[in-house]
Specification:
Layout: E1 2-5, H1 10-23, E2 27-34, E3 42-50, E4 61-66, H2 69-75, E5 79-86, H3 102-113, H4 121-130, E6 134-138, H5 140-151, H6 155-158, H7 162-174, H8 179-188, H9 192-206, E7 224-228, H10 229-239, E8 244-247, H11 254-262, E9 265-266, E10 276-277, E11 279-282, H12 286-298, E12 303-308, H13 309-314, H14 316-324, E13 329-337, E14 343-347, H15 352-356, E15 366-369, H16 373-390, E16 394-399, H17 400-403, E17 406-410, H18 471-491, H19 494-497, E18 498-501, E19 506-510, H20 514-527, E20 533-537, E21 539-541, H21 545-552, E22 557-562, H22 568-577, E23 583-586, H23 595-608, E24 612-614
Parallel strand pairs: 1-4, 4-5, 5-6, 8-11, 8-12, 12-13, 13-16, 15-16, 19-20, 19-22, 22-23, 23-24
Antiparallel strand pairs: 1-3, 2-3, 2-17, 7-17, 9-10, 13-14, 15-21, 18-20
Helix pairs in contact: 1-7, 1-8, 5-9, 7-9, 8-9, 10-11, 10-16, 12-14, 20-23
């Protein structure tokens, strides 16, 4: 873990550190946490390293790399092996760190005082040494002064390399050659001055550490990519044929749209050689964003929008309009801590029922929830396909935990080159064209604006689109729209609607981001003599009720694992099947579930017959 004040390069150093490890052949999973301000408040990056695919982080870290006092005070209870800290701050008292929230400060002071220590940073060092953790003091000030003099730079510019000193110390502990880290720096910075500045910082830090973990370079077969959830969704949309994206800036959704803006020109694979592109429109608010996406979709353009909780609330009416008019639009919903503004830079799963029931009235909504970066990519592609195949809004849920986490993926595993595009039932139009023609399965042949005469309105309408309130038409048109969800339920395979891993009479029923922590915990639980089975729901509408009921039949324990208070996914299970969980593992702090939290919680339930375990790890 590396932490510090926002704006001082925490993300950059973590990304460079991760890129160097990836180049050495290791898989990574990195979780990014930050406050809802631009600069100054505490942020941190937790990175897990493995020689095999990994999908979560842990609550306890081997190395805590810091270059300010707040990170030491906030996270010292989470480190096991090494603390890297600024020696000049040893006299800093916990109560002097004004940016540290009172609740956290009181909790950490109690930890120290209960063992007879004071509240200085040096007391923290002594506390950790008592518990077997080694401290590596770094004289950041003198190191930076030497670099500044050597390069003849101004202090404000050079100080930005302070973060790379701690990255250098951390990398030295791994035992890997610092050349990997230097190569990552050269790929990150284009300016020669910044490259040299950061290399000097790396060298200084690396010299302070001795090889402890003995990592050796691993062979890499094929190509790998380092990607976060926002980027995976953006790439998936572009690969899936997206040509219009609207958005209003909001955390953490905006990163997806800005990535598409930066990479919106697309090289054509067609014989004519004509390149294409994605129109990205930043609107004045989220109402305009959904309405712009609806309008683009009616022209035949593959269209989407992206937002988070407050913006999604504003989109309700526009999504309902899309349901009435059978508009194939994709809404990427970046779910975060709620209600209201809530925890704007933290995560959560408390908006699931909002997503499933978005918009007033009864109409088909297809709702897909991704559990990792591979699924984010494939669901972005398939979300566009489902929207056009069933001519209805599709909501793609990506939690902030996944959006702002990054991992190393084998390039072939995400299907980048094999994305298939399904545009559904199309019509070129005719003089007697019926946009909302009654059909047995509810799907009307779709012509684009300009191809035929058609009418769109927010009111109930007949096959032409003309407004009508006639009872006979209302019955038929209402049924026609809603039959599409039955069709989708029959056609979307169960293999897409849910994932099953393991085989046991103890089932962990989950959705979204807890998937990774559960899969990573399986080996530890197996070693403790506890076999588990994970059932991950990926599609909540249409819900795979029959398949889930079949899988849960005869199970001894059904443990709902969710990042919300009510276990909303389990409530939807009960609504469709009448089955209730026997136990719960829940978390609503906005921080991700970790592998060891899952391991300990399952042990408590199985061994001690605990009904509900509430998790609270992470600061």
């Amino acid at each position: 873990m590396i932490g510090g004040a926002q704006g001082l390069g925490v993300d950059t150093s973590a990304t460079i550190f991760g890129a160097a490890l990836a180049k050495a052949g290791y898989y990574l999973y990195g979780s990014r946490e930050y406050y809802s301000n631009i600069k100054g408040r505490h942020s941190y990056f937790n990175v897990s390293i493995s020689d095999k695919q990994i999908k979560s982080v842990t609550s306890r870290v081997n190395i805590l790399a810091t270059f300010d006092a707040e990170t030491v005070f906030q996270h010292f209870t989470e480190v096991k092996d090494f603390l890297i800290y600024d020696k000049a701050l040893e006299g800093t008292k916990l109560e002097m760190v004004r940016s540290l929230e009172k609740e956290i400060a009181d909790e950490m002071a109690a930890v120290l005082e209960n063992e007879g220590f004071g509240t200085t940073l040096l007391d923290v060092v002594k506390y950790l040494e008592k518990h077997g953790c080694k401290a590596i003091p770094v004289e950041y000030g003198s190191i930076m002064s030497g670099i500044i003099n050597e390069m003849h730079l101004q202090p404000p510019i050079a100080e930005r390399a302070r973060n790379m000193i701690s990255a250098g110390v951390s990398f030295g502990l791994t035992g890997l050659d610092k050349g990997y880290l230097i190569e990552a720096i050269k790929k990150t910075f284009k300016n020669e001055t910044f490259v040299n500045l950061n290399i000097l910082a790396i060298n200084a830090g690396y010299a302070l550490a001795k090889d402890h973990y003995g990592l050796k370079p691993l062979k890499i077969d094929g190509h790998r990519i380092q990607v976060d959830g926002n980027t995976a969704s953006a790439i998936g949309k572009v690969a899936g044929g997206l040509r219009f994206q609207s958005y209003y800036p909001i955390t953490p959704a905006s990163d997806e749209s800005t990535y598409i803006e930066a990479n919106q020109m697309i090289k054509s694979a067609n014989a004519d050689g004509k390149d294409g592109g994605v129109v990205v429109l930043q609107t004045e608010d989220e109402l305009a964003a959904i309405n712009a996406a609806n309008g683009a979709a009616l022209t035949g353009t593959r269209a989407a929008t992206a937002t988070s909780g407050p913006g999604f609330s504003l989109m309700n009416e526009g999504i309902s309009w899309a349901g009435m008019n059978e508009v194939p639009v994709l809404i990427t919903y970046y779910m975060r801590g709620s209600p209201a503004t809530g925890l704007p830079t933290r995560s959560g799963q408390s908006d699931l029922k909002l997503a499933v029931n978005v918009g007033h009235g009864e109409f088909p909504r297809i709702v897909v929830a991704s559990g990792d970066h591979n699924e984010v990519f494939s669901d972005a592609v398939e979300g566009l396909n489902l929207a056009e195949r069933y001519q209805t809004p599709v909501v793609h849920i990506i939690e902030k935990t996944i959006a702002n986490a990054y991992s190393i993926l084998d390039e072939n595993s995400i299907g980048l080159k094999g994305a298939k595009i399904d545009r559904g039932v199309l019509s070129g139009g005719s003089d007697d064209y019926l946009r909302f023609k009654f059909t047995e399965n509810g799907i009307s042949p779709r012509a684009f604006l300009g191809q035929a005469q058609m009418f769109y309105t927010g009111d109930e309408h007949n096959e032409f689109g003309h407004i009508t309130e006639a009872t006979s038409n209302r019955l038929k048109m209402y049924e026609k729209r809603n039959r599409k969800l039955d069709l989708a339920d029959a056609e979307i395979p169960d293999e897409y609607k849910l994932n099953v891993s393991g085989d046991s009479d103890t089932v962990l029923l989950t959705w979204g981001s807890p998937k990774g922590a559960i899969l990573d915990a399986m080996d530890d639980l197996k070693a403790a003599g506890i076999a588990i089975e994970m059932i991950q729901i990926r599609v909540f509408s249409p819900y795979p009720a029959k398949k889930v009921a079949e899988l849960l039949k005869g199970k001894k324990r059904i443990i709902a694992v969710e990042n919300n208070y009510y276990a909303q996914g389990a409530e939807i299970l009960a609504e469709h099947t009448g089955i209730m969980p026997t136990n719960y593992i829940l978390k609503w702090t906005g921080r991700p579930m970790t592998k060891d939290e899952i391991t300990d919680a399952v042990k408590s339930i199985v061994n001690d017959d605990i009904k509900k375990v509430v998790l609270h790890g992470g600061e």
